[in-house]
């Protein structure tokens, strides 16, 4: 007899945990851009495309996290 039973989909919990990493990553990308622009304002136009590329790559991890959550939710282990 189990003490506690998990009922429902654990994919939501998994995606919540998987979203922590990209959330931190986006914060680091934009904080680095703000810091570099504060140090050298004339380079802001030069570094802005790299900010958006970094943002897109980090957000791709969040999309992969939700995709794998849906994939694994349909396939019970065991």
Assign the CATH class. Mainly Alpha
For this structure, the CATH topology is F1FO ATP Synthase
Give the strand tally: 0
Share of residues in strands: under 5%
From the structure above, extract its key features.
78 residues; transmembrane; 3 helices; elongated; 74% helix; CF(0); F1FO ATP Synthase; 0% strand; mainly alpha
Please tell me about this protein's structure:
With 78 residues, the chain is an all-alpha fold. The protein has a single domain (18-72), classed as F1FO ATP Synthase. Helices cover 74% and strands 0% of the residues. It is built from 3 helices and no strands. α2 runs antiparallel to α3 (44-73). It is elongated. The protein starts with 10 loop residues before the first helix and ends in a 5-residue tail after the last helix. The mean pLDDT is 83.
Task: Sum this structure up briefly.
This protein is mainly α and 78 residues long. 74% of the residues lie in helices and 0% in strands.
Topology, element by element:
Layout: H1 11-18, H2 20-39, H3 44-73
Membrane topology: Multi-pass membrane protein
Protein name: ATP synthase subunit c
Domain V-ATPase proteolipid subunit C-like: 11-71
């Amino acid at each position: 007899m189990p003490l506690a039973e998990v009922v429902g989909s654990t994919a939501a919990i998994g995606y919540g945990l998987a979203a922590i990493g990209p959330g931190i990553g986006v914060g680091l990308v934009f904080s680095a851009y703000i810091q570099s622009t504060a140090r050298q304002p004339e380079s802001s136009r030069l570094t802005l495309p790299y900010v958006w590329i970094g943002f897109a790559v980090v957000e791709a991890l969040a999309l992969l996290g939700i995709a794998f959550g849906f994939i694994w939710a349909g396939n019970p282990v065991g």
